[in-house]
Every structure is written in structure tokens, then in C-alpha cells.
Amino acid sequence: MFGIDAPELLVIAAVALIVIGPKELPGMLRAVGRWMATARNMAGEFRGHVDDMMRQAELDELKKQVEAGTKDAVLDLQGLDPTREIKAAIAEGASDVEKEMAAARASVDASTTDALAPPPVTTAELTAPAEPVTSVSPVEPEAAAVPPASESVASATPEALPDEPVVPTPANQPEAPPKVAVG
Questions:
Q1: Is the Cβ–Cβ distance between 66 and 73 less than 8 Å?
Q2: What is the pLDDT of residues 82-103, one digit of tens each?
Q3: How far is CA 178 from CA 48, 135, 136, 137, in A?
Q4: What is the pLDDT of residues 133-166, one digit of tens each?
Q5: Alpha helices (H) along the chain
Q6: How many CA atoms are closer than 13 Å to the CA of 87, on its beta-carbon side?
Q7: pTM of the model as a whole
Q8: Which residues contact 162 (CB under 8 A, 6 or more apart)?
Q9: Shortest CA distance to 144 belongs to which of 170, 182, 167, 178?
Q10: How far apart are CA 159 and CA 182, in angstroms?
């Protein structure tokens, strides 16, 4: 403050103590404090009045420009609309979210198709089952043709094989009951 450091303040305090005296020093400091507070309040009021005058001068100038009809004075009321800016920011955020969701869906779809793709078929899996092939007629299940036990699928000729492929059921899955047509 004003280029006065601690050593200078100590010298001023010592001189004040000697000149004023220890009895009157507290009262003198209170009076100086009150005077400083009053000076600060007056400076604050002065600054406030100057700011008010500046605002009033700016408003008077703007009023003159509006009355004169200059291009600079045209008020853009739509430019003063904060909701338009907020809506634009929300729409931009929503489009960013949609892009991220599309990228996430594409990565999930790619990973699920890779995970759900059937494993490649080897020639060992294409060998014929060891069980004999039976065909069940949907109309008459009792009259189903069962080949003799000596014949196997491997020794059967292509004419003897059924038209529909035979899909073996897993061991832990129960066999489906034969279909019977009701008529």
C-alpha cells in the first residue's frame, strides 16, 4: 500500500507512540479508522455515480441511434432468444448421441455375428450316423418301414435313402413324439 512495507510502518508507529503518547494513541487510531471508513464509503458512492452516468450516457446514445434509424440500432429480437441457442445445443448433443449409439450397435452386431456363427464343418462330422435310418409316415405310424438290422446307412444305396435328411438328436434331448394326422 503506497510502497510502505513493514519496516516503514514500524518506524511510523514508533514516532506516533512518541509524539501522541500511549494514553491518546487508541483514541487517535479509532478516529483514523473512522475517517478511512468514511473515505472508502465516499469513494464507493462516487464510483457508483460515475458508473450510473456512463450507463445513462450509453442509453442516451442508443436512444439517439434508434430515433435516427441507423442500421446499427436495429434490434435483432430473434438474436436475443436464448431458447433457440439451447435447442440448437440439445439437438447437437442428440445427434452426437445417435452417432455413438449407431457405432455401438454396429460393434455389438459385429461381435454377436462372429460369436453366433456356426463353426466350420469338417469332413469327420459329415460321416453317416451309426443308427439305422427309419422313416415314419405321418399318416400311419404303425406301418413305418424299418430296414432289417443287418443293413446300415453306410451300406445303403442312394435310392434307399429318404428324401429328407436325418438329423440326429443330442443324447440329452428327448425324442419328439411321432406326428399323427387327424382327419
A1: yes
A2: 788 888 899 999 999 999 999 9
A3: 99, 11, 8, 9
A4: 555 545 554 444 455 544 444 454 555 555 666 6
A5: 6-20, 25-68, 82-116
A6: 4
A7: 0.31
A8: 133, 135
A9: 178
A10: 30
